[in-house]
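Every protein is a chain of amino acids, and every chain bends into a shape of its own. The protein below has been through that process, and both of its lines are reproduced in full.
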Amino acid sequence: MIRLGHILAKIALVATTTPMVMADIEIEEGRQFWSFQPLAEHAIPVVKDETWPRSNIDRFLLARLEASNLTPAPDATRETLLRRITFALTGLPPTIAEQDAFLADKSARPIESAIDTLLNSDAFAERWARHWLDIVRYADTSGGSGAHPMPDAWRFRDYVIDSFRQDKPLNQLIREHIAGDLLPFSSYEQQIAQLTATGFLVLGPHNYGDQDKELLALDIVDEQIDTLGKAFLGMTIGCARCHDHEFDPIPAEDYYALAGIFLSTKSVADAGFSKWFTQPYPLSTEEESEQASEKARVASLEAEIANLKMRIKMQSEPNSVSEAGANPNTGNAVEKSDPKKLQAELKMKEDLRKELQEKKPPARPSIMGVAEIEQPKDTQVRLRGLPREMGKTVQRGFLQVVTSPGMPSTKIDRGSGRLELANWIASDKNPLTARVLANRIWQHLFGHGIVRSPDNFGTTGNSPTHPELLDHLALLLIQNGWSTKKLVREIVLSRAWQMASAGGDPNGAKLDPENELLWRANKRRIDAESLRDSILTLSGSLNTERGGPSLPPDFKTEFDFEITSLKRSIYIPAFRNRPEEIFSNFDFANPNFVVGKRFESTLPTQSLYLMNSPFIHQQSNLAEKQLLEKSADAKGAVLRTYRHILGRAPKDDEMSLTLHFLKSADFSSEARAGLVRSLFSCVDFQYIH
């Protein structure tokens, strides 16, 4: 009988004695691949139908459609368009008041006013921050078997929301994520924000209980490199840990050039059970001044106490006097010393000194983040990725294949190299970063990216369906100061984005079944957060309070924790091992990984949840009370309910069936709540057309 242990021993022996085979990677040849090419400004295409385009985006798309003998779908109705805009920009449904205002606006382009209002709302910041949190694998617990709480993670989340509210340039956001602690600042608030931003590097899922600290350090660095590569560069750099990348021009030496940067960065507080690195808030200028005043006061007291002690000692000598002089009434007079008065004063000052010395400063908030180590250094290649199998030392640096005229120097003169790496990734000349980010914005608005593998711009990823348009968008992003809001506005105002999802060219389904050429809009299901937040909004239960801790002070474990918060979904705890039920049912992003595009499933459990969940029943009961109370105007109540929940008026047959159902149940509260539940479950609520 062959024992499993013998097999494992053989495998281990082979692993530790076989030299690592390095693939023959041709860097210069790799630079010819489309994603490594410098951004190019392509000529705007000439189209046959000049009446259709409203923007250059439309011209790029229409040119491809005309070349394929396809015509674009008609414009979406105003009702459909408003619902599409509000969900895309805020993740929330339009109110009846917003519907009335939009439908009543007779100006040439009423959509512009609606878009600008939504772009400047807090809801936009929350919605688009959530997109960002998907790619930086945000969670409130550490992952691994312990899933320990990260009580300060929410500060990073709120920092991201604030950044999208301010429309912070996306390349600056990346700089702050990688090297915020090394960037200059002009205010205390900016300093705190930039320190908080580096929480990006320690938010990952790690097994901090691992007793092999060298392996733990390498695993953390590996996760940092993998996340950074996919999120900002669209590159699977982590595949080069054990050997040269099998498919992309990334040798293992490039991986360890990056690893040296992060091994020269303090990310972990080591102990028997390690923990992510935290540091207290730095002192503000006012606090530093206050502390200096306190120290000066103590020093002054020390001098006074020393003087008093000397005087007491002198007055304690025999025949000592405190004062002597002429007195007109008694002649010459001498006052004997009395040290008791001085001793009382001494005690008072010593008590005050003790009080000041024992006075503890208020507890300072903690920041999850990173810091430089004292002696940064290059690291060695680890053969097969094993911590103690050393190859040659590699100078810290970046990916050799990514070069473009005008890019920052790759030379690291001092420190870890994080600042240089941040500037290299965030450079206007980096051919990957702007393409990756522009593609992500396009995907969030259209449902699919121009590159349909948003986290992989390498040779195993998808090629762009419209490469010239992708470059056009990337250059627009750069020219507009890496502004999310400006690029979103440009795309949403295009005629292509405002097409209907139905109708259009009868040959479209045959010639382009996947709608890669965008001859119509994509019908899309709203995501888990939008589903929950919409239901809370429509029932009147949504708590609009913004920011603050996700976890209560007494939080112990995610496994028996009940989420009762009614705030927007971005503010409730994001657990790595046990997501909230509505999130697990409706494809919430797995926070253990970079998720540039969420999986979209269609399962029986989703319908069962919408029919049977206590949450759905509770919110339906609340919604019916404000929408469908028995009244003489039953038809008006039904109209209001449909518009409130679906964003449109009921069709004639829907109105007839609904009224018949409610009247047959004598408008009972159970029937009214049942109607609301059925609307929550219907396709027109769950999907954006």
Summary: The first helix runs from residue 4 to 17. Residues 1-23 have pLDDT under 50 and may be disordered. Residues 528-688 form one domain.
